[in-house]
Design brief:
Strand content: under 5%
Shape: elongated
Order of helices and strands: HHHHHHHHHHHHH
Number of strands: 0
Largest sheet: none
């Protein structure tokens, strides 16, 4: 099954068929390994229980299942609910407008974006929300500074992705500490890449290094697309 999943990734198979295929193969191989079909549901829910009499091997192999991941899954569900409320109530829009009043330069906007990603990782408890929500908050600000979208994408990666594993109650921090068996704050001082990337991103913002600009023609296309999106949104509201 792992080899098949790797091949599906190599051949760029869509995510949902790939996940379903990997799960189906795993279930089939439970039968090959001697697990009776009547126990498949229990294994999927509670995970595998080793038959080894060696304590270290037993602890290593006895794990998995939906219940083993429920801590992470419940965090994701709560985080998505929180993010939806923040977005739909336009609290994020209000927050972004207040921050952008004092952030006029490229360096200041990059700094605000990086800090927003870190804060969202802490309060929203999910890496994806720390990427998506600040991305939506500051997309137009980057565009109005004539910055290409890849600049915003890199800032979100440098802060949203890199700092998520440093927060114990974030889904990434909870997952990694569970897999590694090491508390988040124990490995945090040694996570140099995660700690330095946001600082490097801010440095690039103030110095202009790697901050690629749009041409006037590209910016006009962005404005046209923005106007078309607003018109489409108005039509959907009227409908």
């Amino acid at each position: 099954p792992p080899l098949c999943v790797i091949l599906m990734v190599v051949f760029k198979m869509p995510a949902l068929p790939g996940l379903i295929g990997g799960t189906t193969l795993g279930v089939v191989f439970m039968g090959v390994q001697g697990v009776p079909p009547t126990d498949w549901g229990a294994v999927l829910n509670y995970g595998y229980e080793s038959v080894s009499e060696i304590p270290e091997i037993y602890d290593l192999l006895t794990r998995g299942g939906m219940q083993g991941m429920m801590w992470t899954i419940s965090l994701i569900m709560c985080a998505m609910t929180f993010g939806g409320i923040m977005d739909a109530s336009e609290q994020l829009k209000t927050l972004a407008e207040a921050l952008l009043k004092v952030a006029k330069s490229v360096g200041a906007v990059v700094t605000v974006t990086v800090l927003s990603c870190i804060i969202m990782n802490i309060i929203a408890c999910d890496q994806y929300l720390a990427i998506i929500l600040p991305g939506r908050m500051y997309k137009e600000a980057f565009e109005d500074l004539r910055l290409k979208q890849k600049n915003l994408s890199r800032c979100l990666e440098d802060a949203g992705t890199m700092t998520s594993s440093l927060v114990p109650w974030n889904t990434c921090g909870a997952t990694m500490s569970t897999f590694l068996g090491v508390p988040t704050f124990s490995y945090l001082p040694y996570a140099f890449l995660n700690l330095l990337n946001p600082i490097v991103s801010i440095f690039y913002g103030f110095t202009g290094i790697t901050m690629h600009k749009m041409t006037e023609e590209e910016y006009q296309k962005v404005l046209e697309q923005r106007a078309a999106d607003k018109e489409l949104a108005l039509k959907s509201l009227q409908a």
